[in-house]
Amino acid sequence: MPTTIALDELQKLIQQAAILVDVLPADEYTREHLPGAINIPLKDIGLSTAATLPRDRLIIVYCHDYE
Amino acid sequence: MSARAAWRLETLGFTEVFRYKPGKADWLANGLPTTGTEANVPRVSQVIRRDVPTCHLGERVGTVRERVQAAGWDMCLVVTNDNVVLGRLRGKALRASQVAIVDEVMEEGPTTIRPDTLLDDIIPRMQQKRVASIVVTTPDGRLIGVLFRHDAEARLVTSTVQPKGTDGA
To answer: Is B152 within 8 Å of B44 (Cβ atoms)?
Structure first.
């Protein structure tokens, strides 16, 4: 079950080299995203994209808010 | 959206997946930097006053008024124990009898906006409706602060003033 985190935990995990994934559509990501975030829109998350993500790192996903 | 993404990643075999549930709006609300073509666009989060006095249902107006005046404000927001905004006291309500109860005089359900709202969008709306201030909350209604129109207008002016020698002339 994915763990929900708040801002302070997010910042700690980023320092631990977690991979930050913005799951918003590409145009929204292009306009504005968190520093260091990569973009994998929700609709693109699947077998092929999963193969590009390292399995030995923590992964944090975010979107706009609470969605 | 991030909930579905997190679950999907787990079904794909990732075992340590975290979800930053409050998302980009929360990041922006905390005034943290962003990257992208609109990263430097002035937003409400940059000019929020976060020290607005608060009170709770059941409190006496006289007690609240003293607190508000001591803080140098002329407004108080009525919140729950979880900081969710229920109402507002200002003007006549704040000058009500000192034994009156907040519930009896408060303005119910004030309009709220989110901290990531663009100043370019909100200022014309406030000007059109002649609104001097507006309450800023998280999407689930928790108080962040108050946006004053004059702060927003001043911030926008500052952000559009080009330093000398940068206009390409």
So the answer is: yes
Q: Looking at domain A7-62, which CATH architecture does it have?
A: 3-Layer(aba) Sandwich (3.40)
Q: In the block, which residue shows the tokens 């979800």?
A: B19
The minimal CB distance from B139 to the residues A13, A24, A65 is found for A65
Model confidence pLDDT, tens digit, residues B52-111: 999 999 999 999 999 999 999 999 999 999 999 999 999 999 999 999 999 999 999 999
Please give, one letter per residue, the 3-state secondary structure of chain A. CCEEECHHHHHHHHHCCCEEEECCCHHHHHHCECCCCEECCHHHCCHHHHCCCCCCCCEEEECCCCC
Total Cβ atoms within 10 A of residue B5: 27
Given a contact cutoff of 8 angstroms between Cβ atoms, the answer to whether B105 and B93 are in contact is yes
Cα-Cα-Cα-Cα dihedral sign, residues A3, A8, A10, A15: negative
> What is the reported pTM?
0.73
Least Cα separation, residue A55 to chain B (angstroms): 6
Tell me which chain B residues have a C-beta less than 8 angstroms from the C-beta of A10.
Answer: 18, 20
Topology of the domain comprising B39-160: CBS-domain (3.10.580)
| Any B CB within 8 A of A35 CB | yes
